[in-house]
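Quick question about two entries, pasted in order.
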Amino acid sequence: MHRHHEPPYAGGDPARSEFVARDPESRIDDRLDNETSVDSVDEVPDDPEVAALYALVAERLKQAHARVHALHVSAEAKTALARQLLIVTETAKRDLPEAARRLSRFVHDLDEGRPPRG
């Protein structure tokens, strides 16, 4: 039970219009994507090859996450595999080619039926 005098929500009153869905069918995921779209030129790679590699790695990461989710293994094993994919995601922010190599090894290991190495 909330015993403090301030609202229990960090952002204020959830009944305010900014917290209410604009469309009853919309999901919070959809609103966040629309509200946080990349408008900054600094965040978009100038080189079309780099942009294409980012798109490829992002799509392959989504596919790898879906494959991990569909595996018939323990929750702990899925968590460990998802963490490895998060490491690939973080690596992509600093070293895109290395992230692509790590992701390729991860997927290859999944294809071969071996647990991916870190």
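Here is the second entry:
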Amino acid sequence: MVEDTTWLLGLAGLAVVGVADGSDGPVVDLVTADEGARRCPECGTPARRSKGRRVTRPRDLPVGRRRPALRWCKRRWRCDEPGCRRRSFTRGCVCRARPASG
């Protein structure tokens, strides 16, 4: 499923967990499917504790004639490394733009 999400939406490391028909087009629910997202971007230590979840809504990703609304539920992590300045973090995704058809 992760590779399908990358291919369809150009978003690496995410997985589709649900699709619903919204009033303005499809609503696609995503979750992070990359284990590397647990690593602190400051010190590289793998996080062991979650600080909750946050929903973000990436935009500007047309698929066909309809523009889906994306809801990305991603986990917030705590960095427990004593020497690290970063206390909590979320990780973004790698967006791979596909060439426009034309």
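Reply: The chain has a mean pLDDT of 80. The longest strand covers residues 69-78. Hope that helps.
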